[in-house]
Amino acid sequence: MNRFSGLDVHKDSVFLCIIDETGVIYREKFGVLTPDLERLSSTMKEYQVAEVAMESTSIYWIPIWRVLEGDFILHLVNPYFIKQLPGRKSDVKDAEWIATCLMKNLISDSFVPEEHVQQLRQYDRRIFDLSSDIVRKRGKIDAGLQRCNFRLSNYVSTTDSKSYTDVLKKIISGVTDPDVLIKEIHGRIINKHGRETIMAALTGVFAKSDIDTLRQLYDEVELASKHKAECMSAMDEICRTYFGPQYYALQTIPGVKARSAASIIASIGVDMSKFKSEKHVVSWAGLKPRNEESAGKVKSRRITHGNRQLRKTLIECSWGARKQNGCFFNRYSYIQCTVRKKNTMKVQVAIARKILVTAYFILLTGEPYRDYNDSTSDGKAA
Fold first, then answer.
1. DSSP H or E run through 315
2. Which residues pair with 298 in a beta bridge?
3. Contact by Cβ (8 Å): 172, 186
4. Strand-pair category, 23-30 with 4-9
5. pTM here?
6. What is the per-residue pLDDT across 25-48, written as a single tens digit (0 to 9) for each?
7. What is the dihedral of CA 214, 219, 220, 221, to 10 degrees?
8. How far apart are CA 12 and CA 27, in angstroms?
């Protein structure tokens, strides 16, 4: 007779319930330190537990999964799909309910990738965090310069351009003379706005505290950029070592380069048997338009929730694919935006969805990208 275990996971405790067809066999509360989790594993082995289910509670399930993996058949469950009945809520009852759902085969497993993909995912999310930090710190640098009435950002394209960065380096080294700073400005900027205007923008009022703050912020940006490069290098190494064919095949898709290919693998892995179809992976990524209609009125066509890191990567890829002359995505964008006058961002989301479907079939079949070249296409084909 098979025995099933349900785990109700919290930050500082784990509630265990073991059941079989006769009912509850064992209940106990465990700590979350490694010796406690090892004792949890030993207890379940003693009771000859075959399968274990737990809710995906924040990140608290991950260390438990790592300790139990290899000894049991594990199931990770979205709490949304196994909500307990109102008025019957307690930690013990939660564990029992999870075990009951598992025994009655009412549980649909969440996607848990294999070890190397998990490492990729950790690097990938670290890169997203570092990128956000860099953007935020660059904004603080410009705000600090504006505080000193230094207005160069009004006349350059971005605050991470070479001219802006070179001028910033001079300022944090103590040089604030506009006649010296203007030598770091690209001639095209001076010709466009006029030398007098740029000189006026470079004339600021700096205190020692301003320069010290700017130097610290710049050092933080440089450190974050260094860490970002290290993460990208580590991702590239893992992809080339363990997922080489898939890694290079994904880069044949217009708009997808090494960083994007690594991010796609980090999000969905390379084993497409985890997804029922291409529609499933699109829904999982949150790129599927929702269908909310009542009494003949359409309430929403916004895309659904999903993996926001993957969605952001694919949207960025869609902009690159749109600009690649001659490819299907370029033609699709032209027809939808220019000919049919559709909203540009909605078209970009549609292109991102098509790129994901393309990636799905590349990973499923192992075949590289082949462009759709039918000259009669009206932009409807995927």
1. helix 308-322
2. 293
3. no
4. unpaired
5. 0.84
6. 899 999 999 999 999 999 999 999
7. 90
8. 17
